[in-house]
Amino acid sequence: MNKENDKLLIGGKKFNSRFILGSGKYDLNLIDAAIKYAGAEIITLALRRANTVKGENILDFIPKGVTLLPNTSGARNAKEAVRIAKLSRELGCGDFIKIEVIHESKYLLPDNYETIKATEELAKDGFTVMPYMYPDLNAARDMINAGAACVMPLASPIGSNKGLSTKEFIRVLINEIDVPVIVDAGLGKPSEACEVMEMGADAVMVNTAVATAKDIPLMAGAFKNAIDAGRKAYLAGLGRVIEDGAVSSSPLTGFLRD
Amino acid sequence: MKSVEEMRKVNHMEYMEGMEEISSDIMNKVINEINITDFDTFTKEDVIRALNSEEKSVEDFKALLSPAAIPYLEDMARLATKETRKHFGNSIYLFTPLYISNYCENYCIYCGFNCYNKIKRAKLTFEDIKKEMKAIAKTGIEEILILTGESRKMSDVEYIGKSCEIAKKYFKNVGVEVYPMNSDEYRYLHEHGADFVTVFQETYNSDKYETLHLMGHKRIFPYRFNAQERALIGGMRGVAFAALLGLDDFRKDALATGLHAYLLQRKYPHAEISFSCPRLRPIINNDKINPKDVHEPQLLQVMCAYRLFMPFAGLTISTREREGFRDNVIGMCATKISAGVSTGIGSHTEDIDEKGDDQFEICDDRSLEEVLGAIKDKGLQPVMNDYVYIQ
User: In a mutagenesis test of the A interface, which of B52, B262, B285 is the best target, namely the one with the most A β-carbons within 10 Å?
Assistant: First the structure.
C-alpha cells in the first residue's frame, strides 16, 4: 500500500477525500460551507429533490469541481431505479449513480435483489454504479459481478444515527471484497466513522448526522477529521496488544523432534 | 534414454497440444508475490502484530512463515488450536488413499514412481479395485482418495472414471489425486462420482520446477498450476493444494501454496479448500548441506501458518510423518488424517496377483482401529464423512 499516495479509486476516478457527504435534509445555503469543512469531493443528490418548491435548484448550490453522485431514492424496484438513473444522466448529472431501491417505508431497508438487477442494467449502459445495500456478502459479490464500482453497505437503518449495528457484516465485506467498501447510512457520530475507517473501510457517506447537528459545518469538519484519523490508523497498522492470562505450563510444542 | 539436455529443451512454461488454457491471473499474482518477498526482513514485532490481528492479512501470513516466527511457535500452536476448534469443533476426518496404478510418464527426479525408476509397475483391474475397496470399506472408512501415477496411456480418464464409479458403491466420498486434466475431463470424473481434486505443485519456483521435472506432461508448470481452477470449472466441490516442502525454499513454497488457495477461494467462494503438508525428510545434523531443511518445528510452523491464514481450510497430515507428530497436530492444526495406508498397488488384499511397488515409505503404518483409538484418547471425535454428494 502506498501511504503517500493514498487515493480512493471509483470507476477509474481518483479522489483524495474519503468522505462522501449527503445534501439532503438541510438548507441549501449551507451546502457550500458543509462541503468546504468536510473537504468532500463527492456529494450525493436525490434526483427526486432536485427542484425545491421555491424553485431553487440544488444543482446551483453545489460548487464546481465536486463530483455529483445522484441517487435513485424513491425507486421501489430495479425498473424505477434504472429510469431515474437515465433521467439524471439526461439532466447532465454525469455517469455516477448511487442505486437506492427501497419499497418498505418503516425502516427504509434497501432491497438487495432489485439492486443487483438495476446494477447489471446500468453498468452495461456505462454508468459508474454505486449500490447502497444491506451488508450481505453474497449480494455484494453478485453486485460486483453485475458491474458495481463499489458497494455501499449500511451501518444502521438510514437516518437513524444508531451507529455501527452491522459491524461484523461490514468487516466480512471489507475482508472479502476487492472493490471499495463505502459505509453508508446510520452512522451517528464521528467516532463511529473513525472506527469503521480503522477497520479498513474505503470511505464513509454521511448525511443525517451532519444535517441534524446544531452546527452543520462544524460537524462536517468533525467527521472529516475522524475519517482522516481512522484512515491513517488503518494505513499505519494497529499496534500490538498483549493478551492477558497465564501461559500454559505444559507446552503444546513439547513433542517436536528434529 | 534421452539425455537430460535433450529433455530440457521442452519449454516448461508453454502449454502442450491438447492442454486447456483458461484465462486466469492467479499464477502471475502468486509468482509476483513470492518474488518480492524476503522473509529475512520480518521482525519479532511483525510476528507479534500478525499473531494479534483478527483477520490475518497476506503480510501477516508472511510474518508467520518467516524465521522471526520460530521463537513464537508455541503461541502459534495455541492460536491455531483455538481456530481449529472454532471452525471444526472436535472433529477429525478420516480417509484412506488407494493407489490403483503406478505407471508414470513423468521424470521427476525425486519421485519413487518416476518413469526411469525400475520398480514393479502394476495397474489394478476393475475386479481388483472392487476387492481393494471392499476390504477398505470393511474397516469402516467412508472416504477414499484414488491415486494413480501420471500416465494418460495406462490410466486414462475413462479408467479413472470407472474406478470412481466403483468407489461410489463403497464410499460416501471420493477424491482423486491423479494427473492434471482439462475441465471437461474433471467434469467427467465428477459425473462419475469424484468431487474433490488434489494436485501438488511440488514447488512454486518455476526455475527450480524446471530442473526437477524433466519429462512428461508434468513438466508444464502453468498447466499444473491451473489444475485446481479447471477442476472447479468442471464442477468439483473442493480442491487441495500442496508444495513438497524441502524441494526449494520451503517458506516461499508455503507462501505460494497459501496464496494460491487464498486467491482461488476469493475467485470461487463456494470452493472447499484443503492443504497437505508433505516434506522431504532433511538430512539430520547437517544444516550446512541445506539450511532450508524442513525439520519438525518448521513443518509445524507452516501448518500453523496455513491454519491461521485460512482458518476454515481443511489440513491433512501425511503418513510420511511419525505417529507422535501426527497425534499431536490433529486438533491443533490438522483436521484430516489417513489411516490404514499403503502406497503400493494391490496391498489391501491378499489375492491380487499383479502387485506394484510403493511410491514412498510411510512412517505411520497404524491400522484404522489404532488411529481411531489415538483420536479418541485426545478427546477428539473421529468423523468418517461430512458431505452428501449431490450430482
Answer: B52
Question: Directed axis angle between helix B126-138 and helix B157-170, to 10°?
Answer: 30
Whole-prediction pTM: 0.83
Residue with cell 518445528: B297
Q: Report percent pLDDT > 90 for chain A.
A: 48
* Catalytic annotation present for A98: yes
A99 close to A86: Cβ distance less than 8 angstroms: no
On whether the CB atoms of residues B77 and B125 are closer than 8 A, the answer is no
- Is B78 an 8 Å CB contact of chain A? yes
Classified as helix, coil or strand, B341 is coil
Report d(CA B272, CA B236) in Å as an integer: 9
Our measurement of the distance from residue A93's CA atom to the centroid of its chain's CA atoms, rounded to an integer in Å, reads 19
Segments in B214-342 forming alpha helices (H): 221-225, 227-233, 250-267, 296-309, 323-329
Local structure of residue A66 (DSSP, 8 states): P
Residue percentage of chain A with pLDDT more than 70: 88
Catalytic residue, chosen from A36, A54, A98, A214, is A98
Q: Where are the alpha helices (DSSP H) in chain B?
A: 4-7, 26-36, 44-52, 58-65, 73-88, 126-138, 157-170, 183-191, 206-212, 221-225, 227-233, 250-267, 296-309, 323-329, 368-377
Nearest Cβ partner for A251 among B45, B74, B285: B74
Express each pLDDT in B16-40 by its tens digit.
999 999 999 999 999 999 999 999 9
A237 touches chain B (CB under 8 A): yes
